[in-house]
């Protein structure tokens, strides 16, 4: 039994929906379909979700919303017309879109979430109708009915664990079950959306709930590449990744799936595959708990920008019990998380994401280091990138660090910092952002040699 | 103007003292001589300091101390006889040794320090007399008279900064000034000893005080080797080291000078040279503030054993602001300092010295990590060594890491962790202790190739 999730670009037009129908029909195991809202048909187009945000803004400002409603309804209507659907489903959808403007504005914590969720919700209705009319018995199931109960945190709903038992009952349906992604329902019955990557989270939750054999996540790419295609021309695509590898890659710039979306499937021990709606015969990238066979040591190379280093020197620092803790305390009091803390004997650096800093926070950090901790020197250095080489199998390949360091040094790239060994899955380099692309090139050539 | 310090093995016998006289005479700039207590003449011998400890123990236990006194007096007497000194100095020394047994036992915080310090103090008297009798006008100056005022912390005296101005007045002497090392005098006039490396500290303080051009520290080795001679056969000796390099090497196993001894000279910007009393024509190892010329990238390779790693995993650890600080807080509450904290995304290791652990502390760490911080996994792994390659010039040699990693991997040595970049002076590897010697061999061959 498989859970299939389709992203917005896979559901943007009648033509795309035909591909979706073929995909679901092609495998009788595909019993659960989780859908996003219709995405852009072309680069000039507006996403339905963005149109709903406009609609919401006009509504709460008590402006006329007729044009907003009409644009959204027309968006669904066009698909319905092209697919030749019977009018019944569009009557329901149009009513649902209009009914949003009847929701109370005052003291309604969930108003924004209710507007947003309508994109997915109505698309699920339309798709279920389309499946039914084309020989694929299907049923639209609202998250409330599906049992997806969440915490009442608008825009950041968390699944309530008891939901899984209710979701499991969906296995009782004979038809294909079509569920809108991106939101759940609180215990009080309010619509509440997940954070970023919302429909992926729903797919992951449903897969865990129905104990799927596989969670198929259909996007518009042939899976995950071993390096960023904007930097490496035609990079290899990865056939198999572990959850740990995926998470390490996601940390430094790989954004195919948001890592929060992985948690329910990971905990439910459900393998996941990322496939391409436009090229369904491509095997895609499978994300598994454990590699099925011997892999090459490095599966992917990722990089992320926007890091700064707070470098601190103090003579005899390492004799001072509590020094490192106090440095982290200063940051924590300013609500700043750290990424890495490479340490020397009398030196310590704290790598943080630059977006966490403001001029006032910077000044405060340096002031406290100098006056409270009496350091000899403290400085904030900018324009660093983190480069990661990832692979569960690296541990058993002794020479990986040597190969990587040599590849970088041969290209004249200075390694500002290396952190290896805490995670068995990755080696992390800090380099100057100006050298990032050259560094990725060098590592890609070293670990993915052309045959 | 130079301050010369001689260690115990340089002062163990009349034969050794003759070498010392020759050394001081050879350079009229050698105006200040700091001396240790007489060391062992051979491996079966007893150090005077150890004999003084016995004497102290018997004295506080109210046992008969005559034999202790006689042994110590005889030790000086033998040297005096061999050197043909006039009896006057031995009369003073014998009285001083006997007078120790007149010091109050009750409420005397400084009794032990007074006994210990007698080894250096009386040796200084003897050496000053010897110099005088052999054509080198010299004067014995007690630390009280020299102005070496210290905090009243027995066994851990700290110099009081105002001392330096008084010490500077020693420049007024025309004679060679002979000062006993290892102790100062409190504001109340009590004898109080320094911590480990005590005579080196005195030399360093005097050098800073008299604003010496050079602090010559005479030992029984030809300076500092680039790697441990017990592991590398005939290692190169280092001609020039910076204070920072010295301190990094001292951290991981190089123990020629205790790092606390370096502080006054370092702060006074006095260069230091480590030389061999038994081979004074060897240039030794000079320790400077800044390299005088272009050095090879790596000056030394050091290693130290007895490290453990507390490895911690928690899914989404790096999203949790304050997590790292809380881990360090747990350790700090148990009075445990950390050495290094390599971090992955969901993983963190804390490297600590094993001697800081007890079974109860270990259990408490794991308990708190599991219950208070709710980690997914926490474990204490043992038998790690830290391996450091040190050199101020590494930063400008891009390939150093690559060379080191390749050398280790070629010998099949697994790098458990690397920390590079926080200190510009060193690269640190954590490896299994069982592979330490092979690792040092591999690195030595890589960075100190045979010509």
UniProtKB/TrEMBL annotation, chains A, B:
Alphabetized UniProt keyword annotations: Amino-acid biosynthesis, ATP-binding, Diaminopimelate biosynthesis, Kinase, Lysine biosynthesis, Nucleotide-binding, Transferase
Pathway: Amino-acid biosynthesis; L-threonine biosynthesis; L-threonine from L-aspartate: step 1/5; Amino-acid biosynthesis; L-methionine biosynthesis via de novo pathway; L-homoserine from L-aspartate: step 1/3; Amino-acid biosynthesis; L-lysine biosynthesis via DAP pathway; (S)-tetrahydrodipicolinate from L-aspartate: step 1/4
GO molecular function: aspartate kinase activity; ATP binding
PROSITE patterns: ACT (PS51671), ASPARTOKINASE (PS00324)
Pfam entry (one): AA_kinase
Annotated residues for binding of ATP: 5-8, 219-220
One Gene Ontology cellular component: cytosol
Superkingdom, taxonomy of origin: Bacteria
GO terms under biological process: diaminopimelate biosynthetic process; homoserine biosynthetic process; lysine biosynthetic process via diaminopimelate; threonine biosynthetic process
EC number: 2.7.2.4
Residue positions binding substrate: 49, 120
Name of the top EC class for this enzyme: transferase
Domain ACT stretches: 389-451
Catalytic activity field: L-aspartate + ATP = 4-phospho-L-aspartate + ADP
Membership in a protein family: Belongs to the aspartokinase family.
Function statement: Catalyzes the phosphorylation of the beta-carboxyl group of aspartic acid with ATP to yield 4-phospho-L-aspartate, which is involved in the branched biosynthetic pathway leading to the biosynthesis of amino acids threonine, isoleucine and methionine.
Protein name according to UniProt: Aspartokinase
């Amino acid at each position: 039994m498989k859970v299939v999730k389709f992203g917005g670009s896979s559901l943007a037009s009648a033509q795309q929906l035909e591909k979706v129908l073929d995909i679901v029909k092609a495998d009788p195991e595909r019993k659960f379909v989780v859908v996003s809202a219709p995405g852009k048909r072309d680069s000039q187009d507006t996403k339905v979700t963005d149109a709903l945000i406009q609609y919401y803004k006009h509504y709460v400002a008590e402006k006329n919303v007729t044009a907003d409603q009409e644009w959204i309804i027309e968006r669904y209507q066009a698909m319905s017309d092209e697919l030749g659907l019977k009018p019944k489903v569009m009557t329901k959808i149009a009513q649902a879109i209009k009914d949003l403007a009847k929701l109370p504005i005052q003291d309604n914590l969930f108003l924004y979430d209710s507007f947003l969720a309508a994109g997915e919700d109505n698309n699920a209705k339309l798709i279920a109708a389309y499946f039914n009319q084309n020989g694929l018995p299907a049923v639209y199931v609202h998250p409330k009915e599906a049992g997806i109960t969440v915490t009442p945190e608008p825009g950041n709903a968390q699944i309530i664990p008891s939901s899984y038992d209710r979701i499991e009952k969906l296995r009782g349906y004979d038809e294909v079950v079509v569920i809108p992604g991106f939101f759940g329902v609180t215990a009080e019955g309010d619509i509440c959306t997940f954070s970023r990557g919302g429909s992926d989270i729903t797919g992951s939750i449903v897969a865990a709930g129905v104990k799927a054999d596989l969670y198929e996540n259909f996007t518009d790419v042939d899976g995950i590449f071993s390096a960023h295609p904007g930097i490496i021309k035609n990079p290899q695509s990865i056939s198999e990744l572990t959850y740990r590898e995926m998470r390490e890659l996601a940390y430094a710039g790989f954004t195919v799936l948001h890592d929060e979306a992985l948690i329910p499937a990971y905990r439910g021990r459900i393998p996941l595959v990322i496939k391409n709606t436009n090229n369904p015969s491509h095997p895609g990238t499978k994300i598994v708990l454990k590699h099925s066979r011997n892999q090459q040591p490095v599966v992917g190379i990722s990089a992320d920008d926007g890091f700064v280093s707070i470098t601190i020197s103090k003579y005899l620092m390492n004799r001072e019990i509590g020094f490192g803790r106090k440095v982290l305390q200063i940051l924590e009091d300013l609500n700043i998380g750290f990424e890495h803390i490479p340490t020397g004997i009398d030196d310590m650096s704290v790598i943080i994401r630059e977006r966490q800093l403001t001029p006032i926070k910077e000044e405060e950090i340096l002031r406290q280091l100098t006056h409270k901790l009496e350091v000899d020197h403290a400085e904030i250095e900018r324009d660093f990138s983190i480069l990661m080489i990832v692979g569960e199998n690296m541990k058993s390949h002794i020479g990986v660090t040597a190969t990587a360091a040599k590849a970088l040094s041969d290209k004249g790239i200075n390694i500002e910092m290396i952190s290896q060994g805490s995670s068995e899955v990755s080696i992390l380099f800090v380099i100057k952002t100006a050298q990032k692309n050259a560094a990725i090139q060098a590592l890609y050539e070293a670990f993915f040699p052309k045959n």
